[in-house]
Amino acid sequence: MVLGIGMYAVAYQSVLPGTSQQATADQTIDRIWDELEENGVFYAHDDPALQDRIDDSEPLPAGATVYVSITAIDEDANRVLVDGAFPSGYPDNDASSSDIEQYVAEDGIPDDASVATQSIPVTVENEADVRSGTLRVAVW
Predict the structure, then answer these.
(1) Which of 11, 21, 83, 111 is the most buried (most CB within 10 A)?
(2) Is the pLDDT score of 32 beyond 70?
């Protein structure tokens, strides 16, 4: 019985949210938000480097590239406050995050990517300047 349960757990470990190639942006966005938020707010007025805020001891979806952006309303338009890319195999992969960010800036998110968005509060100029923002996560 114990052996059967152990084999079942090993066989299905790869389908747990955020751990397999099949992990979607919907599953990944929750993990990203948990690591980025402080007291329910994203503090963009601080140094907002996403790579420094994501725990790299836990892999993002295995075999997938992840692109994260945070926007906020600024002068009646959405403005990207911070974005970051996490190549497949991050942090062990030598692929450059900036190459992926440039690709997304030039060509956009691939059509076959899984994309999720979530409304979040964001500080812009200081802690008192809280605006409506959007966390966007794409996985491909």
Answers:
(1) 83
(2) yes
